Amino acid sequence: MTFRVRDEDKRIIDCMLRDLAEVIYLLPNKTLDPKNLERIRVIITGSGLDIPDFVLEKAENLELIQTLSAGVDTLPLDRIPPNVIICSNAGGNSRAVAEHVFAMILSAIKRIIYHHKNMEKGIWERRRYGSMLMGKTLGIIGLGHVGREIAKIGKCFGMRIYGINRSGKTDVDVDFIGTPESLDFVLRESDIIVISVPLNKYTRGLIGAKELNTMKKNTILVNVSRGEVIDQRALFEHLRRNPEFVACLDVWWKYPEKDTKTCLQDFPFHTLPNVIMTPHIAGFAREIREQVIKHAVENVRKYLLGEKISNIVRREDYL
Asked: Which CATH architecture best describes the domain 94-277?
């Protein structure tokens, strides 16, 4: 284990794996006995940033890297031996992300923040009405684990669901499902668009000026994937020119070294009235850590038992 492990995490991990393997917890700035390095078959990591270089260099019998995060774009893929299987933790926190998406959508479509700021100033203005979700078209770019949860909630609101994934197939109730070739159609027809794709060589810069101009002038655009999926300059300029267009952003292009540090982007999104912002917290909730740990460790357990595992990463999508 290379992530920062809490006592409650250890109890879960030990309970699920102690009958199959010896578990070693690698503390920050600590080294391992070379004999232990040679015995490592599986690494469970937070996002990949916490795997020390010496572990990848010396763990000659490494077979599997399992992340706790759904995204794997921070893994040092170029330094991980090609024979090592990499698994993400997609699905571990998908419900939490989907609920956050709808918190942002409802804030935008009901103009909650606009009215809240007015009320703080003592301004009583009721004529700037919000809209209803019922009957609106929700476009989901990336109908994976998170996207499917978003689709289910959207249906409960009486929305039409248009989705895009690689295969053009899904087992979720949608009104349209297409492949990336249908991107322009979904962008053009949707009232609300949610980006929930992984960041890889195919999705980096997926949404630029052309795609933004394809959307309706009053679209609500939600991004819970990665900042780099959207062209930063293009989005800022589009928001500035189209005051009825709203961007709900939980993911960013720049991150601070520590959570308490100031973090501003290359463009001053915080000065725009048509942006709703959160600091990459969609996947977090008080109840979620245990679920995320169990989801990842269960995949490791299946691997050690020789069973079929989930969320195997296609390296060719990233390298």
From this structure: 3-Layer(aba) Sandwich (3.40)
Hey, is 231 helix, strand or coil?
coil
Report the pLDDT averaged over residues 87-116.
Answer: 97
Look at phi and psi of residue 239 and say left if phi exceeds 0, alpha if psi is from -120 to 50, else beta: alpha
Chain mean pLDDT for the chain: 94
Contact in structure between 300 and 92 (CB atoms under 8 Å): no
Q: Bridge-partner residues for 45, per DSSP?
A: 67
Inform me whether the pLDDT recorded for 55 exceeds 90. Answer: no
Nearest to 161 by CA among 188, 130, 195, 136: 136
The pTM of the full predicted model, rounded to 2 decimals, is 0.93
DSSP-assigned states of every residue in 17-59: HTTT-------TT----HHHHHH--EEEESSSTTS-HHHHHH-
Q: Look at residue 1 and tell me whether its pLDDT is greater than 80.
A: no
Percentage of the chain with pLDDT > 90?
A: 83
Q: What is the pLDDT of residues 167-189, one digit of tens each?
A: 999 999 999 999 999 999 999 99
Q: Could you say which DSSP state residue 230 is in?
A: B
> Where exactly are the structural domains of the chain?
7-92+287-317, 94-277
For residues 291 and 263, the answer to whether their CB atoms sit within 8 Å is no
The single-letter DSSP state of residue 312 is B
For domain 7-92+287-317, give the fold: Rossmann fold (3.40.50)
Are 7-92+287-317 and 94-277 equal in CATH topology? Answer: yes
Phi, psi of 37 (to 5 degrees): -60, -40
Instruction: Compute the distance between CA of residue 202 and CA of residue 181 in angstroms, rounded to an integer.
Output: 12
